[in-house]
Amino acid sequence: GAVVSQHPSRVICKSGTSVKIECRSLDFQATTMFWYRQFPKQSLMLMATSNEGSKATYEQGVEKDKFLINHASLTLSTLTVTSAHPEDSSFYICSARGSGTDRPHEQYFGPGTRLTVT
Amino acid sequence: GEDVEQSLFLSVREGDSSVINCTYTDSSSTYLYWYKQEPGAGLQLLTYIFSNMDMKQDQRLTVLLNKKDKHLSLRIADTQTGDSAIYFCAESGTGGFKTIFGAGTRLFVKA
After folding, report:
1. How many CB pairs below 8 Å do chains A and B form together?
2. What single string gives the DSSP state of each residue in A15-53?
3. Chain B interface mutation, best of A36, A44, A54, A103, highest count of B Cβ atoms under 10 Å
4. Which residue among A20, A101, A109, B53 has the highest number of C-beta atoms inside a 10 angstrom radius?
5. What does A52-115 look like in DSSP terms, one character per residue?
6. Has residue B66 got a pLDDT over 70?
7. What confidence score (pLDDT) does residue A30 get?
8. Contact B31 A93 (CB under 8 A)
9. Distance of CA B50 to the CA centre of its chain
10. Which of the 8 DSSP states describes residue B63?
11. Residue B77 DSSP class
């Protein structure tokens, strides 16, 4: 149980376009979802935390107008990278925490989305 | 603020034991985790320990916690080439709201 999926797994987009990444909890209700960014050979950088039905809380230095997060339901959160630039190329990982799992304190991670902006 | 530190690289021979160390600063840490990340994949929880425990064993994995020194270790017995990955130490506090991750230790297993 406690599976988190992400879609797409890989995306290539042109500079200036927007791209949406979906994160879904498949068998539990994700009351809180987290979005991370990971640079090559580096750790996870928390971008934002979202609770279902409320606005996301962004970490310092993360532009909320550039990285739009929507957590409209207990099973889905989306991250939209607006007006993407090559420096936005990265590995984006979501995680979810919620009710109905064996360990409600634990974050369950998605498989990640590799974004490449050309 | 809270911080989690771990060494960046560890190389062992197949069949040997691996020990990955981690230190943290948050004295109110409630849960301490070890995650594994294989290339191009998300994070997989390996094991976790509650802060009132000293040790936890799960098959080839042994977690030791020294709460006084804020030191956590992960021992992998009989390390296999399939164990090659990045291992992240993480902690979350009493509220359990935010999890702080270390930079990850890249484990390389030589055949």
Report:
1. 45
2. TT--EEEEEEESSSEEEEEEEEEE-TTS-EEEEEEEETT
3. A44
4. A109
5. TTSPPEEPTT--TTTEEEEEEETTEEEEEE-S--GGG-EEEEEEEEEETSS-TT--EE---EEE
6. yes
7. 87
8. no
9. 13
10. E
11. S
